[in-house]
Amino acid sequence: MSRIGSAALVLALTICARPASATTIAILTIPPTAQTRLLHDGLEEHARARNVAVHVAYAREGAGDQQVGQARRFIAEKVDALVVMPSDPSAGAVITRLAQEADIPLVYINNWLGADWSAGRVVFVMPNDLVAGRLQMRKLAQMLNGVGRVALIGGHASHPGSALRTRGAKEVMAEFAGLRLVAETSANGDRLTARSAVIGWFARGVRIDAIAATNDEMAIGAAEAIAAVGLPAGRILIGGVDATADGMQAMQDKRLAVTIYQDAATQGRRAIDDALALIRHEPVQQYDWMPSELITDRISTTHFSR
Predict the structure, then answer these.
(1) CA–CA distances in Å: residue 80 to residues 23, 51, 83, 220
(2) Nearest 5 degrees, angle CA 56-CA 8-CA 305?
(3) What is the crossing angle of helices 89-102 and 64-76, to 10°?
């Protein structure tokens, strides 16, 4: 990676030109990916629309210490609020404590930290990933008539949302005596890693009727593996989550059977609005859940492809 590219990954800072008296929100997040690009765009576009100055710092997944350092710096600069997509669950408790001690509003987005409640001005804006996993597997189970061999592909170990999606899928599988887990792996949210893992399963003779992946990128990787070994699209049912543009195209091409839409752009807008309400000391619902919507080939994909 070039020096410029490496620096962009470690820390990218964007400052919207605003008067010195403007409200300032610091956004601490992981670098944009296929499934988080709409969330990033929603955050920054809505902040500009609300006349808010935005500082954005990136930390790669798993880099909790780096993100804590970014939080310390922005708190020292006296920003008006923090919006955080945790790069690692371990960073959450420290960032929460730092924000509470400084009495700075804090909004967490997209990634579950496992906290049931937090004192002070702390809000969580996120989808319920447990529900997403349940929705995905229940539809796959229905399509299999409750009988079949299922494989699971999880995401990055530092992403609790992926773990919750897998947990939801397993909870539903346990309700069907005819469903059997035949393979499970982690592909770190990556398409090529998932493709390689599924090809490896086929090479070992693992027989599979459905694959449930915790994001669309890995689901597409599974679909590419199926094509690579010469199986027709649809022979093995594949489920994803996120309803990304590529995921929706794969749905239309019949390569994916199921995905889950969680409206990342609205999540970004709600995070900014909640942060502004906290700045004004207005009451805000601590858990601001985003709905999860099931998408299959029998449900129009027009709305979700925009």
Answers:
(1) 6, 13, 10, 40
(2) 70
(3) 10
Rounded distance, CA 173 to CA 189, Å?
22
Task: List the chain residues with pLDDT less than 50.
Answer: 1-20, 300-306
Angle between helical axes of 191-203 and 216-228 (0-180°, round to 10): 40
Contact indicator for 256, 219 with CB cutoff of 8 Å: yes
Three-class HEC string of 10-77: HCCCCECCCCCCCCEEEEEECCCCCCCHHHHHHHHHHHHHCCCEEEEEECCCCCHHHHHHHHHHHHHC
Among 209, 279, 214, 282, which residue's Cα sits nearest to residue 244?
214
Q: Which two tokens stand for residue 150?
A: 């299922």
Do 58 and 12 contact (CB within 8 A), yes or no? yes
CA–CA dist 242, 146 (Å, integer)? 24
Per the document, the length of the chain is 306
Domains and CATH numbers, the chain: 3-126+263-290 (3.40.50.2300), 130-262+297-305 (3.40.50.2300)
Q: Dihedral sign for Cα 58, 63, 68, 70, please.
A: negative
What is the overall mean pLDDT for the chain? 87
Q: How far apart are the first and last CA of the chain?
A: 32
Instruction: Quote the pLDDT of residue 32.
Output: 82
